[in-house]
Amino acid sequence: MAVTAVHQLAQCITCHAWSADRSMVALCPNNSEVHIYRLVEDKWEKMHVLQKHDQLISGIDWSARSNKIVTASHDRNSYVWNLERSEWVPTLVILRLNRAALCVQWSPKENKFAVGSGAKTVCICYYEQENNWWVSKLIRKRHDSSVTCVSWHPDNILVASTSTDGKCRIFSTFIKGVDAKDPKNESRFGELIVQLDLSPSWTFGVKWSPSGNTLAYVGHNSVIYFVDDVGPSPLAQNVVFRDLPLRDVLFVSEKMVIGVGYDCIPMVFAADERGIWSFIRYLGERKAVSSGSRYGSQFSEAFGKFYGQAKQGGSNDASETSRTRGVVHENCINSIIPLSRQGTQIRRFSTTGLDGKLVMWDLETEQDLLELLVH
Amino acid sequence: MARAERFVEADNAEAIITRIEHKSRKIESLLKQYKPVEALKTALEGTYAMTGDERCKSAHWIAVHRALMAIKDVDGMLSSLDPEYYDILMKYLYRGLATGDRPTCDQCLRIHEKLTEKAGLGCILRFLTDTVNTV
Fold first, then answer.
1. What is the per-residue pLDDT for B134?
2. Start-end of the WD repeats (chain A) (predicted)?
3. Potential cystine with A329: which of A127, A264, A310, B21 (Cβ 3.0-4.6 Å)?
4. Which helix H or strand E contains B5, and what residues bound it?
5. Separation of alpha carbons A149 and A189, rounded Å
6. CA A245 to CA A184: how far, in whole Å?
7. What is the pLDDT of residues A294-346, one digit of tens each?
8. pTM for this structure?
9. Alpha carbons A10 and A331: distance in angstroms, whole number
C-alpha cells in the first residue's frame, strides 16, 4: 500500500506545512492557532502553539532555507514567524486587504511570498531591509472573484493564481531591488502574462511542474486542466474524470501529477510520450463493488430514496465495505505537500483533510507508477 | 470561442431549426425501424453547438425527448453510446426531470441511475457547474 503512516492530529485540519528536515509539521486545526508537532519516537508531541490570528488560518507555508513560517488568515492579516531561541516570534505583514486571505506560498528563493484573497487580489510581499519589515504590493489587475490558490514558477518571478471565476491568471511579480534584472524577461510588476479561461466553474489547486513548463489546475466540475508551454500560445488539455472534484494537485515529476479532493483517495494522472495527459488510477484500494455500496452508506441511502427503492441491499453492508476497502481519509483531502525530493521527482508526500488526519504516502511500493515516473 | 459561435448561430437560427426538423424526420424513421439507440445517437449529435436561442434548444429537446422515450433497453443503449455523449445526455436527463411529466420523469430517472453508474458523479457535477452550455 502506498500509505506509510496515518496520524489523527486534530478533528479537522485546514492546512499544513513541513519544516525543512521534515521533522516538524505545522498545521491549523480549523481554528485561529497554528500547532507545531514533532515526531518523537513514533508519537507526535505538540511543541509550539502559535496564537496571534483572530480567525481561521487558511494557509501556512514553511520556508526550507530561511526557516520562516508564513500564515494567512481570514482576519485579513498575515504573519511571518521567526524562530528566536526556542520561541516563534510573529511579525505582522500589513496586506491592505479588506477581505479574508485564502492561500499563501513562499517563492522559490524565499525572498517573497504571495497571498491570494477574497478581495479578488493577489498580494506579493517582500522584505525591506532598511525598515526591517515586510511590504505588501497588490497586483492591480484583479480577478473577478476570490483567489483560491497561488503558485510560484521556479524562476521566482511568475505567479499563477486560480479563482472562483473559473480563470487561471499568470502575473509577473518583478520587483526592482528584490529581483535581478533579466534581459530576456522584461516584465513589469503586476503584468498579466496569460489568462486561461478553460473552466466554467470554480478553479483550485494550481501548481507548476518542476521545470515550469507545464501548469495544472483543477475545476469544480470534476475536470483537471493541463497547460503545456505556458506563454503566448499555450496547449491546453482537459482531463474529465468520473468522480467528485479535486481540491489540490502535486507534480511528483514532470510527467506525473497526484490530485486530491472530495473523493478522499489520491488520483494519479500521467502524460504519455506524446504528451497527452490521462487518468491512471487511484492511489489506494478502490475495489469496484456493486452499484449500491460503491459510494458508502450515506450515498447509497440517498440514491435509494432517489430511485424509489427502500434500501439498496442493506446499507450496513455498504458502510462495512468502505471500512474494509482501506479508505484512509474519511473526508475531503484539502492539501498535498511533498515530503522528499530525489532530483526533480517526489517519491513521498503527505496529505491532510477535513477529517483531521495527516497521512504520509510513499510511491516506492507502487511499481507501475515508478516505471511511469522514471520515463 | 463558444460565444463567437453563438453570435453567428443566432443569425442562422432558422437554418438550425430546419436542420433539427430534418434530424427529427431521420429520428422518426429510425424509431419506426425499431432502432431507438441509433435514434438517440442522432438526436444527441450536433448538440455541441448548443446555440443560445431558446427556440433551437426547445426544438432540440423535443427531438431528444422523442428518442429517449422510445428506449427500452437502457443498459444496451449506454454500452453502445460514446463516452463523449455522457455529459450531454446527463443535461437532457435533468431537463426531462424538470418537466414534471410522469412518464418522462420515470424514463429519465431510470436512465439517470444507469448513467451515474457508468459515468460517475463527475458527470452530474459537470451538468451542475456548466452554466454556459445549457440545453
1. 80
2. 50-91, 140-172
3. A264
4. helix B2-11
5. 19
6. 38
7. 445 556 666 666 666 433 333 333 333 333 345 688 899 999 999 887 777 88
8. 0.85
9. 13
The mean pLDDT of B12-34, rounded to a whole number, is 82
Q: For residue B61, what are the CA distances in angstroms to A100, A286, B91?
A: 44, 37, 10
Classify burial at A307, counting beta carbons within 10 Å of its beta carbon; exposed 0-12, middle 13-18, buried 19 or more.
middle
Cell of A25: 509539521
Q: Which of A222, A291, A295 sits opposite B125 (nearest CB)?
A: A222
- Locate A351 and state its grid cell: 496529505
* Inter-chain residue contact A241 with B119, CB threshold 8 Å: no
Which residues lie closer than 8 Å to A317 by C-beta, 6 or more apart?
A293
What is the crossing angle of helices B121-129 and B102-119, to 10°? 120
Interface check B120 vs A, CB under 8 A: yes
At A244, is the pLDDT very low, low, confident or very high (cuts 50, 70, 90)? Answer: very high
A64-97 pLDDT, tens digit each:
999 999 999 999 999 999 999 889 999 999 999 9
**B109, B113, B129 member nearest A221 (Cβ):** B129
A266's grid cell? 489520491
Q: What is the structure's pLDDT at A324?
A: 38
Contact B125 A221 (CB under 8 A): yes
Residue A182 has pLDDT above 80, yes or no: no
Rounded (10°) angle between helices B102-119 and B86-99: 150
Can you say how many angstroms the Cα of residue B79 is from the centroid of all Cα atoms in its chain?
17
Nearest CA to A292 out of A318, A266, A271, A267 is that of A318
Query: Nearest-CA neighbor of A320 among A284, A293, A360?
Result: A293
Nearest to A242 among B113, B122, B128 (CB): B122
CB-facing half-sphere around the CA of A319: CA atoms within 13 A: 7
> Which residues does residue A49 pair with via DSSP β-bridges, in sequence order?
A35
Whether the Cβ atoms of residue B65 and residue B96 lie closer than 8 Å to each other: yes
User: How much is the mean pLDDT over chain A?
Assistant: 85
- DSSP letter for B83, please: G
